Amino acid sequence: MKTLKLLAGVTAAVTAVSALAVSAFAYDLNKDLMTGWSASVTVPGSEFADIDENTVITITYTADASLADVDGQNYWCIKPMVNDSGWPLVEGITDLPLSEGKDTYTLDPEATEINFRLPADSIEAIKTAGLAFMGHGVTLNALEVGTATVDDIVPPSSGDDADAPADSEEPADTEAPADAPADSEEPADTEAPADTEAPADTEAPADTEAPEADADKPNTDTGAEGIAVAAGIAAIAAGAAVVAKKRK
Fold first, then answer.
1. What is the DSSP letter of 97?
2. Is residue 198 part of a domain?
3. CA–CA separation, 108 vs 16, rounded Å?
4. Which structural domain, as residue segments, surrounds residue 143?
5. Which element (helix H / strand E) includes 123?
6. Phi/psi at 47 (nearest 5 deg)?
7. At residue 234, does pLDDT exceed 80?
8. Nearest one of 146, 191, 187, 202 to 20, comparing CA atoms
9. Nearest 5°: CA angle at 137, between 134 and 140?
10. CATH number, domain at 59?
11. The total number of structural domains that make up the chain
12. Is 32 among the domain residues?
C-alpha cells in the first residue's frame, strides 16, 4: 500500500511539472517588420490558452540601429493587435510606453526584449483569435509566455510620452538663466536717467537769465530821476530868488 501511495505521489508531481512546462513556452517569430508598415506576424490563440492578467509575455527583438541617422525613420515601435477582423490594437498595456500617436508602443533600440502583461479585458479575445504584430525598425525574434515574472518588467519612464525626453527635462523652463537676471535687475526702470536728471526743465535758462533784459533799463529809469531832481533844484532856486527879492 505504501508503495502504491508513493507511486501515486510521484505521478501527481510529474503531472504538475508537465502542466507548468506547457504553460511556459517560446514561440519563434523571426520576422523583420522593416519600415514600410506592410510586414506582420501572427501567433495563434491556442498558444495563449492558459494565460490570465498576471501572465507575463516576453518578446525578444533586434532593433535596426542604422535608422538612427535616417530622418523620419529614426524610431522603433511595436503594435500588438487582436488577430481578428480589423486587427484592433491591444490597448491598455500599462507595462509598455505608449507612443505619442497612441497607436503603438515604443521600443528602446538599445534593448533586446520587453516584458508585459495583457489587459484583462482583452484576454478572452486573444485566447480565441491570437495576436498579430506590426511595427517599425525591429525584427521580432521570439514570443515567450510565462517564462518571466512581474519583477522582470521595466516600467515606462514617463507615462504616455516615454519616448519624448525633451518634454520631461524641460531645461529652458527649469533653469531659465537668461530670463531671471533681466527681471531681477531691471536696469532701465531703476536708473531712469532721462526722468531724474531732466536738464531742460530744472535749469530753465531762458527764464532765469531774463534779468539781463531788466538790467539794461537803468539808463532810462535813472535819466528820468535825474531830470526830476534837476527840476526840483531849479524850483527851489527860483523860490529862493523870489524870497530874496521880497526881502530886499
1. P
2. no
3. 37
4. 24-161
5. helix 123-129
6. -75, -15
7. no
8. 146
9. 55
10. 2.60.120
11. 1
12. yes
Distance CA 23, CA 19 (A): 6
Each residue's pLDDT tens digit, 192-225 = 444 444 444 544 444 444 445 444 444 445 455 5
Residue found under cell 542604422: 66
The SS3 of residue 232 is helix
- 8-state DSSP, 99: P
What is the Cβ-side half-sphere exposure of residue 26, based on CA atoms within 13 angstroms? 9
Tell me the whole-structure pTM to 2 decimals.
0.57
Amino acid letter, residue 67: L
Taking phi first (over 0 means left), then psi (-120 to 50 degrees means alpha), and beta for anything else, what does residue 182 get? alpha
Q: What are 174-186's pLDDT values in tens digits?
A: 343 344 444 444 4
Dihedral sign, Cα of residue 66, residue 70, residue 74, residue 80: negative
Q: Is residue 129 part of a domain?
A: yes
Dist. CA 69–CA 118, nearest whole Å: 33
Closest CA to 28 of 13, 42, 14, 38: 42
Residue 22: pLDDT band by 50, 70, 90 thresholds? Answer: very low
Instruction: Evaluate whether residue 64 is within a structural domain.
Output: yes
Full 3-state SS string of 172-218: HHHHCCCHHHHHHHCHHHHHCHHHHHCHHHHHCHHHHCCHHHHHCCH
| Residue listed under C-alpha cell 519624448 | 164
Can you name the residues that pair with 140 across neighbouring β-strands?
Answer: 31, 61
Give Cα 15 to chain centroid, integer Å: 56
